[in-house]
Every structure is written in C-alpha cells, then in structure tokens.
Design a protein that fits this description.
The structure is a single chain. The protein is an alpha/beta fold. It folds into 2 domains: 232 residues, P-loop containing nucleotide triphosphate hydrolases (Rossmann fold, 3-Layer(aba) Sandwich); 60 residues. The chain is built from 13 helices and 6 strands. It has a 6-stranded parallel β-sheet with strand order 3-2-4-1-5-6, sandwiched between helices. α1 packs across α13, α9 crosses α12 and α10 packs across α11. The protein starts with a strand and ends with a helix.
Length: 310
Amino acid sequence: MDGASVPVLVGPTGIGKTAVAFALRSHWPLEVISADSRQVYRRLDIGTAKPPRRWLAQLPHHGLDQVSPGMRYSAGRFAQDAPGWIATVRSHGRMPVVVGGTGLYIKALADGLFAEPPMDSLRRRDLQRWTAELSAGELVRWAGRLDPGFRGGGRQRAARAIEVALLTGRPLGYWQAQARSAAVIQPWYVVLTVPRAVLHQRIQARAESMVRQGMIEEVAAVLADGIQAGAPGLDAIGPREAVEYLHGLRSRESVAGAVALASRHYAKRQETWFRHQLEGPVISLDATRPPDQVAQEITERWGNASGVAG
C-alpha cells in the first residue's frame, strides 16, 4: 500500500467510532484527525459527543475545538487545516487515522474539494430556464451528449452536467478530476456497521447519557455568554434540542427522545452517503463486537493490504 494511504474510519453517528479508534492504540502509534463537523465547536463537549478528556490525554486528536459556537466552520476550512494536522502527526513519527462521519469533510480530504468553475450568471439563468422546460428524459440525453462521463441521475444532476459543460467548455468530470488531483490522502476506508435496531439502541442510550451528563447546562452557559440561539455551533443535533427546551419550546423530559429521533434520521442519511460516495478500498466491519475485536481486525486487514505483519 502506498505511503500516502491513510485509514479512514467512518460510520453513522452513535455507532462507536471513537471507542474503536481508542482501541487501535494497542496496535498503532496513531493520532486522530477528527472529521466531525460538530466537534469543531468549543465548549460543546457533551452536546457534540467529544471523546472524554481522559481519552484525549492518551490519544491526541486534531480538529476538535477549532472555533467558537458563534462562528461557522466549513468543509473548505477543514480542507485547508487538515493537511497541516496530518503533516504534524507524521512529523511525530506517528500514524494519522481519520475518524468521523461528516461526508463533506472526508470527501475534501480523499477526493479534493470541488470548486465550481466561473460561470456567467446571465447565461446561467437563461440556461436554467431552458432546462426547466425539458423532460427528465431529455435532460439526461443532453447531459450524456455534452458530458461523456455522465453516469445518470435525476433532473438536478443532469441539469448540473449540462450547465457546467455549456458554460465552461469542459465536462463536469474534468473539473472533478482537477479537484481529485488536489486530494490530500489516499483513503483506506473502514465502514462500521450494525443492525438498524442495535444502532437505534445505541443512539437512544447516548442521547439519554448526554442529558444526564449536563448537555442542557452546557448549552445554557454558552447562551448566557451572548451566543445566539441560531448560531452555527448551536444549530446541530443535541445543542439544538437543548436550546428548544431552554426557550420553552419543549419539556426537559422530551429532550433525549428528540435528540435520538433526529440522530436516527441523520444516521440513515450518513449510511446512504457511505454506500454511494466512497471511492477507493472499502471494508465493512461488524461493530456489534467489542471495540478491541474490531480494532484487531482493522489491524490485520491493514497489514494484509500493506503486505506487512499486523
């Protein structure tokens, strides 16, 4: 396996990625690159399910606590910051392992961040009016003619392919290849999976634990310091439901259930994304087993792929 290859541990929220990463300490001299869009916010440790402080003391993490809850942190910012973290880990003689469930962050590292090429706004509006009048079948046919790499899809994807091809003179695949050339890592994906019922149980248990540990009080302290309720750091599963309670929009007893429900919906979207968007070596592992067993199998699989002993 190429030296630029990096293990990327992904899976839906609540599945146990952090525990598996911690168990990998017994096998690798690793440091974690966090690919979690919620854990970039300071002061929201409980509400964003950050690793416990005692774990962080034993396993360094990069990408946590980057900005105030009142500031926005984007995939573009992550794409700028993460290469430095990876270089730092390697300079320590250690192994970077990307852990998280935010698809856009992972894609920025593994596929490069796709930046839309310049397109004339007036011509674009005219083109959008024209494509809006076409049937879905006509859109797909036009997209296929203009972009040989077009792989099909719905109206929006076809219209996008037509726009890019006509307004830039190059097909969308060309621009995506340009983004991939700027990719930071060669990913070796490990996708954690469990049966849906098991995942729902874990999500419910975590939501209840977050409330018991003081998530609501944590959010109240952030609001008391002048951060607005709709701020980026508070507009996420967990803090959002705590804000609703603090503003009288739901009962305290309903917070954990609301967090669990929103997390289940989010987990379903993540699973769909991981099924369709990961490009490169991908292994799926049963995470119903204890984290140390999963970590052992990851190590063995990595050793086989690398041609070295695990």
